[in-house]
Amino acid sequence: MFGLRGGVQLVEKLRNCASAYNAWVTILDDNGKPNNGPFEASRTIITLDPTTLKPKERFDYLLYGQFMKFIRRGGQRIASAGNDKTLAHVAFRNPNGEIMVVVVNNNHADKPVTISWNGSNAVTRLPARAVGTFVWNSTTGSTQGLP
Fold it and tell me: For the domain with range 3-146, which CATH number is right: 3.40.50.2300, 2.60.40.1180, 3.40.50.300, 2.40.50.40?
């Protein structure tokens, strides 16, 4: 599951009763080496720069971070609905009371995003072909966008 399409698939899995997602993270160089397997190596989310020998994080690393950094242990998925069927989204309530929503815009145009909770609204735009995480602090009623 890579790219924005992978983000949409992860949202769909989480919206359809998945309680966890586990991905193996391997580090290969730009040529897919070392690879001792009988098959050609597939794309990885972290690559090793052969010149500096330092890891390079690819887009997918940041995409998964939109989920991993904000869904806390013990967070529970909550219902979310939207009128724009072209935006994939999933919402969680974390144990500290925060509501977080991950939105994936796999379209070639910016899309408006409105998050409503308990009579309050937050309105923003998500750029084309982007992922954003929005955290709603239920104690202050404020939202913070993290595209």
Answer: 2.60.40.1180
